[in-house]
Amino acid sequence: MLRRIISCVAASASVAWASTSTSYSFKTEGACSTASGSGGTVPLSLPTSTTTSTVSSILTSEEVTVLSTVEVTTDAVTTTVFTQTDYAWTYVTTTVPTTTSWIGAQSIVATATWPTTVCTNGVTPSTVTEYSGSYTPISGQVTTIPASYPSQVVCATGVTWFTILQPVATSGVTTVTVTPTSTILNPTTTSTETYAYTSTEFATTVTSVTTSYHLATSVETVSTACETTTTTTFAAKCAPTNVVAGVGDFGLVSGKYAANTTVIYIPDDDFDDPSVCCQLCQDNEGCAGMMAGISGFCGLLYVGAPNGGPACDFVFSYQTQSDVFPLQGLWVQSGCGEIDYTGSDGV
Prior knowledge:
6% of the residues lie in helices and 63% in strands. The chain has two helices and 15 strands. It is flat.
């Protein structure tokens, strides 16, 4: 037996071979710049153009030398177990005085309605908008289109693909000994381990209601022969320069919301214009405030009253953010409720 093992080791020691493993990785680097525009309409969100360039690189690591392996099996080892373990289970019940059972309830705060007009004579009318009432801007509110503003984001991205070669050479030999093992059960003594199942019982159950607030929606469709020019009247606070879209040099982001606030986003592109969205909030009873902007959306926000229906109370706060340009973040205005400007968020 010894001679056979020595012969095997000697033969293995003379074996040498080489191989190369391959792995892949990539690295992405990019940079963006902002182009400016002037005049016209400030875009609610910035269009982005991206160019991508790709290069390849081959990296060869230093050669690694490893030993070849010979496996030797020794005589088996047998273990006899003389102790047997039995498991016992007990049941323990803990009584707790009171538990709460929650029941969900839904409250319909209000019905948000938006109109749509179908011109039966095929006319697409032009609209003249007039404004009624008065509006006092908040301190620092941006009420004019800036002389220049970000108009586009231009990004360049570079991708480098790496092919990594790892040469491996085998030389020499190492021996791995394997010892087979087996276990024989021949119990002469028994030990017992005890485990407990635990459960909880409640002496009384109290029922409590948690309410979620929702809005109903309705579309009012009017079919009529349209005039070539129509006149509509908006509240002064809804004039394009009066809907709050910036304070000082910065645009707006949202802050905190009232506890029972719920929102409906109007699925009609005609109301993506912040001024039109603002007036829709004025026209809907109980609409506490509105948000619009950022790629085009119109949200009407309501506050659910504890006893049902809408409440014309505080609905949300908003703030400026240094990386948002005026007129390119949120556009906000109050309805029958209160919205609060809380300053800069510090970004």
